[in-house]
Design a protein that fits this description.
homodimer, 11 helices, seven-stranded mixed sheet
């Protein structure tokens, strides 16, 4: 059992639309959408060994701002709930949390403090976006270009011991400003790649009822190697944004990004003529 | 060290106003305030032994809706992040969460699923309230009446083994509809009593720079006894709302409540001529 299957099990309880995106949405009624996202991280599973409390606080906020970014919203406020095994860890953790929030234009506006056997953090962020540009996983159209920001794979490489990439793993930068520009330009779908590029492409493909054909010669890699390509496709922990857009939209977009494929009719993610496995980061209990 | 002291330690980081209430606030700019609150609960500390997963899910949402209620807001959406030791617990937990949310007019709109050694839940809720009636802990004025809804103390009594009150402990009803009526009538301050009546009165007194004199003959008790009075004053886990209001406001208020005292100039909570200890529920690490 993994978390994607578990989520599917409650579709009947909370609804199909409510489980389809990383952010919830609430129509504020004046052409604005309120988006919100929440993420749980805890020490043994989510924080690489040797991480400082500042870095844990930064990462906890960054993962949630990345979800907000993928809708095109400007993040407004962040709430931070922390379960602490020892109280001394709180201040440096919150320094990291506040620093990340402020770097990306948000404010830590509240939270909760609990005692816990293991340092556990849940950050919730919300932001506001114009309904006319609000992005979701659904909306990709056959013919659109498939694009990604940044160089996915470096966080995985850092996990594998490539210390030169540790900053991408430990104090990742959510693509908050890029997300707003992508949405304003008119992208047809968007999500972040934090669970891995391929599995995220499947999420877009599923939500949009399309297929995707990747062009392996155009991947932004941290080095020219099969290893870097594997990290790009299946590594987790990076904070790039995947999005789909027409050529017309791309001509209006003034950020750095790479075109890595095209949206097609179908239901698979294909590279070099082969259907890629639906594989990426997942929380697993027992046998998946 | 307890969580109130720990919270005070980060006032310089996130600001005085941001640590002063159970809810954060965000001005939506059209006479509306968005309020949000987040709460962490986990099995060993927060869920009484023998609780079902349904009850855990219900309680997790109820604590957060109670914070929203204390502002006078109508809760809109709830996000639920769950750390699970075993995946089978998820569905009944979410049934409880969804059931509580829907009972009080909110919708579970998203969340996060994680694996964890101990069942850990963080619920975040937001709601919208007219700026003109939005309630906080601050605002109580000398001369106001001090009021409470419900019969605080029953949750504590249930914890002590009074099984006839277990429903108040395990599936508490946040006073969501009462909170909206209290705010609309024009209460000067409000908060919930979930950490205990006396410590919550101190929170109102501190935030409002006032004192409070209680009338021990008017407490709504579950039985006439010193034990019930102690549960009323210091027990945690109940979901009544404390509020302060002028007689004029009370004359407009058509809900059940008890007047338990008056706001005065000063800085203490006083009963029978004695200053009450600042005592209630707190998370504690080591020596408090």
């Amino acid at each position: 059992m993994d978390d994607r299957k578990l989520l599917a099990s409650i579709r009947t309880l909370i609804g199909e639309a409510e489980t389809a995106d990383d952010c919830s949405m609430f129509d504020l009624g004046d052409g604005k959408i309120l988006v919100a996202s929440t993420d749980m991280l805890h020490e043994t599973t989510d924080f690489p060994k040797g991480m400082t409390e500042f870095e844990m606080g930064w990462m906890s906020v960054a993962v949630t701002l990345s979800d907000i970014a993928s809708t095109g919203a400007a993040p407004s406020q962040v709430l931070v709930a922390v379960g602490l095994d020892s109280p001394e860890r709180f201040y440096p953790f919150m320094e990291g949390a506040v620093s990340c929030a402020e770097t990306f234009g948000a404010k830590v506006a509240g939270g909760d403090i609990d005692s816990h056997k293991e340092l556990t953090a849940v950050t919730t962020a919300f932001g506001i976006v114009d309904k006319s540009v609000y992005c979701r996983r659904s909306g990709a159209l056959a013919g659109d270009f498939v694009c990604v920001t940044g160089i996915p794979g470096r966080a995985q490489a850092a996990l594998d011991g490539h210390d030169e990439f540790r900053q991408f793993l430990l104090t990742p930068n959510p693509q908050v400003f890029e997300g707003q520009k992508i949405a304003q330009a008119g992208a047809s779908s968007m999500m972040d790649v934090s669970d891995g590029v391929v599995i995220s492409l499947y999420d877009i493909a599923d939500a949009s009822s399309v297929g995707i054909i990747l062009d392996g010669t155009s991947f932004p890699l941290f080095e020219e190697s099969g290893y870097a390509k594997t990290c790009f496709l299946y590594g987790g922990g990076d904070f790039g944004l995947l999005f789909t857009a027409s050529g017309d939209v791309l001509s209006r977009l003034d950020i750095d990004y790479s075109v890595i494929g095209r949206v097609v009719e179908g239901d698979s993610v294909i590279l070099d003529g082969k259907i890629l496995p639906r594989k990426g980061y997942a929380h697993v209990w027992g046998d998946a």
